Amino acid sequence: MNLPPDKQREMLRQMLTIRCFEERASADYHAGKIYGVVHCYIGEEAVGVCSALEQGDQIISTHRGHGHCIAKGADLKRMMAELYGRQTGYCKGKGGSMHIADFGIGMLGANGIVAGGISIVTGAGLAAQMDGKGRVAVSFFGDGASNAGPFHECLNIAATWKLPMLYICENNMYAAQTSAAETHAMPDVAGRAAGYGIPGVVVDGNDIFAIHQAAARAIARARAGEGPTLIECKTFRWRAHTERIGQPDFRTEEEIETWKRRDPIARLRGQLEAQGALTDADWQAMNKEVSATIGDAVAFAEASPFPAPEQALEDMYAA
Amino acid sequence: MRELTYAQAGVEAVAEEMRNDQRIFYMSTDPAVSLMKEFGNKRVRATPIAEGALTGIAIGAAGSGYRPIMDWRQVTFSFVAMDQIVNQAAKIHYMFGGQRTFPVLYRANVGGGTRLAAQHCQCPYSMFMNLSGLKMFLPSTPGDLKGLLKTAIRDNNPVISFESNRLLTTKGPVPDGDYAIPLGVADIKRTGSDVTVVAVAWLVHEALAAAEELAKDGISVEVVDPRTLVPLDHAAIRASVQKTGRLVVADEAGPTAGFSAEVAAVVTEDPATFARLKAPVKRVCALNVPIPYSPVLEDHVFPDRKRIIAGVREVLQGRLSDKAV
Ligand SMILES: Cc1ncc(C[n+]2csc(CCOP(=O)(O)OP(=O)(O)O)c2C)c(N)n1
Ligand SMILES: [Mg+2]
């Protein structure tokens, strides 16, 4: 793939940012500074469809949403402040980890309901089509969500109306404790595209270039008015479904270790080094920079005030 | 003034607003033919039967600068979209810290009288009233429906228009020209001094008929039509009850945790109104069963003018015996 070295390094940097953000979110969750629940994206950082998008394109995410936010360009400070429940957070402390949105950058929100975002972002795709400016909309969702009604209803509608949509199934092989093998009649979610008469593509979800390429093709098709594409990225989460302790995890050590050896970040780093596009010093510097940014985000969150209790009554209705 | 049916008034409101604002588009499994003819199949979409997806698509399009109208037709069909209504539409503005506005209008027919049995004769609006984050109304006349729809289409929040099955073909005066009725403002449909009847939709008409009947016995009934369910016009309801001292609530829905229960609470929890009450509050509602099909059964289950009259006489008992009526 012929992406300029700068762009490739930027992709690596973004994946590293996602990983470090998640490591910090996990640590701060266990330290009691973040409440409720956190679903980490570690191991899935390559699903970098956003690197192929333009400003003005819109995405929607899931309960495992931090990675998509970061990839779309969200402000780490306001993200971290939201996790910390602070007034300066993206949702003024009303959303938390499962509900971060930045509508300004086209990130229409994480969603606490499995498959809950698919139809909302399909509406954004309909709006993009009516605008006629060649913008696209992207729905990220898991293997679990692909078994829910909205997936099927929306693929049919998007295919029928030729909406400029990308449906990105992040198949990490599990929905909470339950394996996809137990819940899917066909192993490839992408195969369902045939039922809607649209392209369905399976890609290695730990290979950011493969994903970028598949996304770029789907985006070109969408912008040309030819309709949606279903892309299935086979990947794996390294951590448990959530950071809450005491929840069962039926995945074997061996399975997890196998996938850790397919680390998408190590892979991209290796590719860049082999091309001579990244030195060890570059890598060290990148790590330092990223960890400084995460540190700044945490400092910002910690220094930010909690909302005043009465602010619970604000933003009920729009003027 | 012109006379239009309730259904015609609804179509007219939508058409007028669509002419004025290109951002409005309409989705329904079977949209009104006149709307499809006038606006074409891009702005008036005959959709797949996928209410769950379409309810969410409306939210997404609203957040992207459009002003969609999603017609569920019978409220019955909104239940397959409950996630999108309850978890998404009602919460999306608040939960994301007010980042975006979501101007969506949902339309749903409610109520019985159509002999369509349990699934197609329902009045579940109190389920929706219970959700914070949605506005909703249930008008009793063509003129009110048109005016409220126009306001709702211009509102920047998700609003549900509940429309009465029984009233679709009833005619009533509709003002000429552009007018809108604000949400949250009740209308006194008849003034009176002895008893307040708070009623919605078809039961407003039944209450008016009951009032006419009771007037012959010298009983003066005030009929208050809140029109909007959320936000409910507490002030108008309390003012009327403070004047009459007696309250009957008439609702086509069952009583349990219903609109009628809310009105009773609004009246009794207000010290000034409570102090003026001369009798316990009386609710005249549907019986607590799914709506049965056979006309004999259906008519037994729904309240009507006779039951309103009986309810009024009940809250007036003390006074009636004084007067030896
Ligand atoms: C409608 C609904 N049912 C159940 C849940 C509880 N739940 C949260 S995440 C999850 C698993 C989702 O799996 P998948 O879609 O594969 O996403 P992943 O967590 O693997 O990223 C479940 C069952 C929910 N949030 N929403
Ligand atoms: Mg999964």
Features:
heterodimer, A: 319 residues, alpha/beta, Rossmann fold, five-stranded parallel β-sheet, two-stranded antiparallel ribbon, 7 strands, globular, B: 325 residues, seven-stranded mixed β-sheet, five-stranded mixed β-sheet, 15 helices, 19% strand, binds thiamine diphosphate, binds magnesium ion
Describe the SSE topology.
The complex is a heterodimer of chains A (319) and B (325).
Chain A: H1 5-30, E1 58-60, H2 66-72, H3 76-83, H4 118-131, E2 137-142, H5 149-161, E3 165-171, E4 174-175, E5 178-179, H6 180-183, E6 200-204, H7 208-223, E7 229-234, H8 253-260, H9 264-275, H10 280-303
Parallel strand pairs in A: 1-2, 2-3, 3-7, 6-7
Antiparallel strand pairs in A: 4-5
Chain B: E1 2-5, H1 6-20, E2 24-28, H2 33-43, E3 44-46, H3 51-63, E4 67-74, H4 82-89, H5 92-95, E5 105-110, H6 117-120, H7 125-129, E6 135-137, H8 142-154, E7 159-164, E8 171-174, E9 187-190, E10 195-199, H9 202-215, E11 221-225, E12 228-230, H10 234-244, E13 247-250, H11 259-268, H12 271-276, E14 282-284, H13 295-301, H14 305-315, H15 317-323
Parallel strand pairs in B: 2-3, 2-4, 4-5, 5-7, 6-7, 10-11, 10-13, 13-14
Antiparallel strand pairs in B: 1-8, 6-12, 9-11
Give a description of the structure.
The complex is a heterodimer of chains A (319) and B (325). Helix content of chain A is 41%, strand content 10%. The mean pLDDT of chain A is 97. Chain A is of the alpha/beta class. Chain A has one domain (5-302): Thiamin diphosphate (ThDP)-binding fold, Pyr/PP domains (Rossmann fold, 3-Layer(aba) Sandwich). Chain B has 325 residues and is an alpha/beta fold. Chain B has 2 domains: 2-174, Thiamin diphosphate (ThDP)-binding fold, Pyr/PP domains (Rossmann fold); 187-316, 3-Layer(aba) Sandwich (Rossmann fold). Chain B contains 15 helices and 14 strands. In chain B, helix 9 links the parallel strand 10 and strand 11. The mean pLDDT of chain B is 96. The structure holds thiamine diphosphate and magnesium ion. Magnesium ion binds next to strand 4 of chain A.
